[in-house]
Amino acid sequence: MSGIQIVAFLFCFCGIGAIIAATASNEWKVTSRASSVITATWVFQGLWMNCAGNAMGAFHCRPHLTIFNIEGYIQACRGLMIAAVCLGFFGSVFALIGMKCTKVGGSDQAKAKIACFAGVIFIISGLSALTGCSLYAHRITSEFFDPTFIAQKYELGAALFIGWAGASLCIIGGSIFCFSIVENKQTPRMVYAYNKPGSVMSSRTKAYSADFKASKIPPKHFDKNAYV
């Protein structure tokens, strides 16, 4: 069971990393080669900067100067991606507490509930990132196939595919965490007993018990002093 939770945590951890990379990337949309007049120069934009490059390898990026002059869908995507990253951070903390391989979190029932809660957080994080990337992609595709749109047309950038992949990993890992509460009820954690130095069950008492079970001597005729 702990192995499944470790796999789920790796899925979610990689998903959050991909979401962070997509959020910070500037390649959410790139200029279409089909509609570009100068094919040696292209423009790619992200949530935070607009960049331009050419075939000579020169690039120049300019950040968005003011938040009030940005289009509404970009602001919405910013909020969704930032929410996904924050939720992923808190989900990772709860997942580490709720995993069976860790020593914090209390009993098995409490750890199972914490792991399920972490799974819900990861699923919400993945849905937030999925919504943000899909909203941005819908705007790009609608402008690209709109015959009345005469401005520069763009295509889907690599950051959108990275964001979709990260969101999918978070949703899959979160679902595994949610199902772990059912598996935890069916296979409770094993408790191994051990003897402390000052415990009553000493080595001599163990030998006495073993010989007593192996012998046919009645209890009243058995000499306990032989083991003292």
TrEMBL record:
- Per the similarity annotation, which family is this? Belongs to the claudin family.
Q: In which broad location class does this protein mainly occur, judging by the first location in its UniProt entry?
A: other
UniProt function note:
Claudins function as major constituents of the tight junction complexes that regulate the permeability of epithelia.
The protein's name? Claudin
According to the UniProt entry, the coiled-coil residues are none
Location in or out of the cell: Cell junction, Tight junction; Cell membrane
Membrane-crossing segments per the record: 6-25, 37-59, 79-102, 114-137, 157-182
What the entry lists under PANTHER family is as follows: CLAUDIN
Any matching Pfam family: PMP22_Claudin
Q: What species does this protein belong to?
A: Pantherophis guttatus (Corn snake)
